[in-house]
Amino acid sequence: MGSASASTALKMLKRMAAEQPKEWPRFIVPLLFAYREVPQASLEFSPFELVYGRSVRGPLQVLRELWDEKEPDPAVKTTYVCVLDLAERLQETCEVTKQELLKAKKVQKSYYKRTKLRILEERDQCLLLLPTAHNKLLSQWQGPFEVVKHLSDLNYLMQVGPDQNRFHINMLKKLHTSSYMFGS
């Protein structure tokens, strides 16, 4: 679970503990179920769908299956009551989850607004964040390399040795040289 996910889950638990001070431990499992069932704003899929590749079979789906049966089963009534109780708890936790996701979305949006678009020009000298020769999992700034073409706001074509490769702006750092460095 990422830090944003852990933060959201922690906020949901705190709110549940505040609203249900004596019974909040009972709501942990439904709360996590609801959290996994709600589509993430950035991905438009729920965590459950991303892991299992299908929609979750929640309590409302189970209830509908019970209603569709033609012969009533003696256990149906107790199951029905249990499912309705669970559905009510899930509804509450879904609402809490949605509110927390909206808060997280606002925070992420504020972070995005603070970013500044960096523009590089053709022939600018840049350092590239590339994997080291000894360890491909370790990266370091290497260069300088020249910008060949500005492909989009975020992508640039760079001359790396004899090849030209596409790089994201996050992998580039403009090299600022001063005249005093070269003794002019």
Summarize the structure.
By secondary structure, this protein is α+β, with helices and mostly antiparallel strands. 45% of the residues lie in helices and 18% in strands.
Distance between the termini: 54 Å
Percent in strands: 15-25%
Question: How do the helices and strands follow one another from N- to C-terminus?
Answer: HHHHHEEEEE
Q: Describe the main β-sheet briefly.
A: 5 strands, antiparallel
Number of domains: 2
- Described by its quaternary structure, the protein is single chain
pLDDT averaged residue by residue: 78
Uncertain ranges: none
DSSP helix fraction: 40-55%
Question: Which class of secondary structure composition applies to the elements?
Answer: alpha+beta
The radius of gyration over CA amounts to 27 Å
Give the spatial strand order of the biggest sheet. 4-3-2-1-5
The total of helices stands at 5
Shape: elongated
Report the strand count.
5
Topology record:
Elements: H1 3-19, H2 28-37, H3 47-52, H4 59-68, H5 74-113, E1 125-131, E2 139-150, E3 155-160, E4 163-168, E5 172-174
Antiparallel strand pairs: 1-2, 1-5, 2-3, 3-4
Helix pairs in contact: 1-5, 2-5, 4-5
Question: Can you walk me through this structure?
Answer:
With about 180 residues, the protein is α+β, with helices and mostly antiparallel strands. The chain folds into 2 domains: about 110 residues, no CATH class; about 60 residues, SH3 type barrels. The protein has a 5-stranded antiparallel beta sheet with strand order 4-3-2-1-5, with no helix packed on it. Helix 1 packs across helix 5, helix 2 crosses helix 5 and helix 4 runs antiparallel to helix 5. The model has no long low-confidence stretch (mean pLDDT about 80).
